[in-house]
Specification:
The structure holds two protein chains of two kinds. By secondary structure, chain A is an alpha/beta fold. Chain A has helices at 3-9, 53-59, 90-96, 112-122, 128-141, 145-148, 161-173, 191-204, 217-223, 241-246, 251-257; strands spanning 13-24, 27-38, 42-46, 70-78, 81-82, 97-100, 179-183, 209-213, 226-231, 234-240. In chain A, the strands form two sheets. Chain A has a six-stranded mixed sheet with strand order 6-7-8-3-9-10, with helices on both faces. Chain A has a four-stranded antiparallel sheet with strand order 2-1-4-5, with helices on one face. In chain A, helix 4 crosses helix 5 (128-141) and helix 5 (128-141) packs across helix 7 (161-173). By secondary structure, chain B is mainly alpha-helical. Chain B has a single domain (2-297), classed as MetI-like fold, CATH 1.10.3720.10. In chain B, 78% of the residues lie in helices and 1% in strands. Chain B has eleven helices and two strands; from the N terminus they run ααββααααααααα. In chain B, strand 1 (50-51) and strand 2 form a beta hairpin. The chains are: A alpha/beta, B mainly alpha. The interface between A and B is medium-sized, with 30 and 22 residues.
Chain lengths: 262, 298
């Protein structure tokens, strides 16, 4: 068996949490979650509101700790390296991990071009000859290029909600992050925009490892490879999406996916 | 239903009263200004001689003093206020921010005349004995810092005004920063922005038009402030390039002369000063509204 086939059968682990706990002050919102997120796969995090899935994903790029009083314990391994180790600068970690939020949040004072380039500008890349092709590539990856290529200098806030969200995806992709975190990226969008983003994610995961929080179980079933079910701060179970939805091991998972609570 | 209609009528009347008062102000001030404006013509605004005994009324020096003292105040107060507001919203923990907010608001509760006293007994002597000699030794080649260090004068007025408008400006800037969604800050942080870069990209850039509105409102306050300025500015109707020299503002002349005005023309001239001040502050307030609205739309 060649090395290539080997990685197909057993994909490399891009991101892994070991006993991850997250706190808001004294309140523990995530209770020791260990989860492996394989390379170039889409991992969906599902569960009812307040189950800790959003807090969990925000620990993966150390954004959680920016909330006053919030902190995280345990390990998060990004390509084998613990991002919570002492001396690691969270700013540098966040440059390597893209994130897309619940509501589109382009920078209103920046043009579409500047929005996409903003991550690179922050990293000190200012040369237009370098930026131009990256901006174009990122917008194409986010399936937005054809719609905005003639208005790159206009502000991004004039676009529709779905377009703004794809702009935010392009912004996150511009720095070529190995991992893309998405916190309910379609919950503020209409069904057509949602479908476009789902299509886009299926394409994106060929090159990027995606971790997505979703409220929508059908969405998780449609596009994810692996699903983890969260409840009251615990990860109840995780596994291949097919298995979770057709043959869950835990009774609570079954009750949730069959709509008996949540 | 009927009670509703009466209630609405009462509200309407209440709203109408303030409108009526404003209109009455404008009309009355303009009306009583007319004799002086007719007598002096355009030289009322451009002339710099003010001699009520000779019926010479030129408000140029007062307009100059009003604008320069208030702009000097902005120059000092804006950076301090913006920095304080950033600390309150972006940097300090909520508890400390609350205490500092409270202290800054206390500053706004100090009566104007107390600021004036402090200006006369503390600030002006301090400026005369150390700040102005220092500036004069090193920068006397800049006209702003030429001439003898007198203490009482334009610089004292500017500094006092700066201290007086800082609470207002800080509170307004804080509101502007608080109104910026957390999601904007998180967008910057998630891209790997440092604390300072996050403040620049997500806070200051988004706050630009709101800050302009706050600055213009603070300016409006500085223009009309009377008591403390009157006590420290020196009250001399002159236009001097030096910030050390005494000057005079529109509001300060009114406070100084209204009781001693003997001739009708003098009274009318004072009304014209009041009208000028009213006009300037109204224009500035309208400007602020415009800026803020423009910011909201974009």
């Amino acid at each position: 068996m060649s090395a290539d086939e080997q990685t197909k059968l057993q994909p490399r682990i891009e991101l892994e949490t070991i006993g991850l706990q997250a706190y808001f002050g004294e309140t523990r919102a995530v209770h020791g979650v260990s989860l492996r997120m394989p390379r170039h796969r889409l991992t969906a995090l599902i569960g009812p509101s307040g189950c800790g899935k959003s807090t969990f994903i925000r620990c993966l790029n150390r954004l959680h700790e920016e909330i006053p009083g919030a902190r995280a314990e345990g390990q998060v391994l990004l390509e084998g390296e613990d991002i919570y180790r002492r001396g690691v600068d969270p700013v540098l970690i966040r440059r390597r991990i893209g994130m897309v939020f619940q509501r589109p949040n382009p920078f209103p004072t920046m043009s579409i071009y500047e929005n996409v380039a903003s991550g690179l500008l922050l990293a000190g890349v200012k040369d237009r000859r370098t930026l131009d092709p990256i901006v174009e590539r990122s917008l194409k990856q986010a399936a937005l290029w054809d719609e905005v290529k003639d208005q790159l200098k206009r502000t991004g806030t004039r676009l529709s909600g779905g377009q703004q969200q794809r702009l935010c995806i392009a912004r996150a992709l511009a720095v070529e992050p190995p991992v893309l975190l998405m916190d309910e990226p379609t919950s503020a969008l209409d069904p057509i925009s949602t479908a476009r983003i789902e299509e886009l994610l299926l394409e994106l995961k060929k090159a990027v490892t995606v971790v997505m929080v979703t409220h929508n179980m059908q969405q998780a079933a449609r596009i994810s490879d692996q699903t983890a079910f969260f409840l009251l701060g615990d990860m109840v179970e995780s596994g291949p999406t097919d298995a979770i939805f057709t043959n869950p091991k835990d009774q609570r998972t079954e009750q949730y996916i069959t709509g008996r609570f949540g | 239903m009927k009670a509703d209609r009466i209630f609405i009528q009462i509200l309407r009347a209440a709203a109408g009263v303030s409108l009526l008062i404003l209109a009455a102000f404008f009309i009355q001030m303009f009306w009583s200004s007319l004799p002086a404006l007719r007598a002096a013509g355009m030289s009322f605004f451009s002339g710099t001689d003010w001699d009520p005994n000779q019926d010479v009324f030129g408000a140029g020096a007062f307009i100059y003093g009003t604008l320069v003292s208030s702009l000097l105040a902005l120059l000092i107060a804006v950076p301090i206020s913006v920095a304080t507001a950033l600390c309150l919203t972006e940097i300090f923990p909520a508890k400390i921010a609350g205490v500092i907010s409270f202290l800054v608001e206390m500053l706004a509760a100090i009566p104007s005349v107390v600021f004036g006293l402090w200006g006369v007994f503390v600030l002006s002597p301090l400026l005369r004995s150390s700040v102005q000699p220092f500036l004069s030794e090193r920068f006397s080649w800049i006209p702003l810092f030429s001439g003898p260090p007198l203490g009482i004068g334009m610089m004292s007025a500017g500094v006092i005004l700066a201290i007086m408008i800082t609470p207002t400006l800080t509170a307004l800037a804080r509101e502007v920063f608080l109104s910026i969604p957390t999601l904007q800050r998180e967008a910057a942080q998630a891209l790997g922005a440092t604390r300072w870069e996050t403040i620049w990209i997500a806070v200051l850039k988004n706050a630009k038009s709101g800050l302009w509105g706050a600055i213009i409102l603070g300016w409006g306050r500085a223009l009309g402030e009377t008591m403390a300025v009157t006590m420290v500015i020196g009250n001399r109707p002159q236009i001097s390039a030096s910030l050390f020299a005494p000057a005079q503002t529109l509001a300060a002349v009114l406070a100084n002369e209204y009781a001693e005005a003997t001739s009708d023309l003098h009274l009318s001239a004072l009304s014209a000063l009041g009208f000028t001040l009213l006009l300037v502050s109204t224009i500035i307030h309208l400007g602020a509204k415009f800026w803020i609205r423009r910011g909201r739309e974009s």
